[in-house]
Amino acid sequence: QKEVEQNSGPLSVPEGAIASLNCTYSDRGSQSFFWYRQYSGKSPELIMFIYSNGDKEDGRFTAQLNKASQYVSLLIRDSQPSDSATYLCAVTFPSGSARQLTFGSGTQLTVLP
Amino acid sequence: SAVISQKPSRDICQRGTSLTIQCQVDSQVTMMFWYRQQPGQSLTLIATANQGSEATYESGFVIDKFPISRPNLTFSTLTVSNMSPEDSSIYLCSVADETQYFGPGTRLLVL
Predict the structure, then answer these.
(1) Mind giving me the DSSP string for A13-72?
(2) For a surface tag, which of A51, A91, A110, B107 has the fewest beta carbons within 10 Å of its beta carbon?
(3) How does pLDDT run along chain B (111 residues), one tens digit per residue?
(4) Which residues on chain B are in Cβ contact (under 8 Å) with A102?
């Protein structure tokens, strides 16, 4: 069964802090991992994707993947109020097509000024 | 990334009626998908829209309820048939190359 779990939140951090968002998935054979940001009333927007174990950095965002632990995380450094949104973790599973995404339930992040 | 548009952006419909949602992409794409996002929930994949053949539906979704067309590599439609209030959701089309991008969504309210 395809399962993607995210820490339920909501998560509040002060402006300038590091926000840490976590995600676990059920299939050790999964290959592709994505983080989307969704503002209220808007469609999801891709922030980062990661395929290999380790860290991947893009500006203030770092994705971390540990396939042995079936765990992927997103760190947001120097959090800004504009980062306040719901963050969705998405995974492709070996049983589906290479592009079918299974989403977690999302973590709502609030960055407090 | 491809630019995706959807029509209508929102609609209010009566129970028992049907609504067809259009998804247009500004370039040819191989993979197109339809998702549903119910209020306060995450995204659930409805089906993969296959060009020139029948769509591939996920568990819990059937062609009679959600017929899908994909006449070419830039366009797809999703019909929500015989609607009930439980169909009130945001419906999103997406396209995939190296990564997956979403259209702006169609917000449907069924009364």
Answers:
(1) EETTSPEEEEEEES-TT--EEEEEEE-TTS--EEEEEE-SSEEEEETTEEEEEETTTTEE
(2) A51
(3) 789 999 999 999 999 999 999 999 999 998 899 999 998 888 999 999 988 888 999 999 999 999 999 999 999 999 999 999 999 999 999 998 778 899 999 999 999
(4) 45
Taking contacts as CB-CB distances below 8 angstroms, the residues of chain B near A42 are 104-105
- 3-class secondary structure, A103: strand
Residue type at position B85: P
* C-alpha radius of gyration, chain A, whole number: 13
Residues of A in contact with B33 (CB under 8 A): 99-101
Q: Give a three-class secondary structure readout of chain B.
A: CCCEEEECCEEEECCCCCEEEEEEECCCCCEEEEEEECCCCCEEEEEEECCCCCCEECCCCCCCCCCEEEEECCEEEEEECCCCHHHCEEEEEEEECCCEEECCCEEEEEC
Task: Round to whole Å and give the CA distance between B71 and A41.
Answer: 30
In A, residues 49-108, which contact B (CB 8 Å cutoff)?
A: 49, 88, 90, 97, 99-106
Closest approach of A9 to chain B, Cα-based (Å)? 13
Q: Is A42 on the interface with B (CB under 8 A)?
A: yes
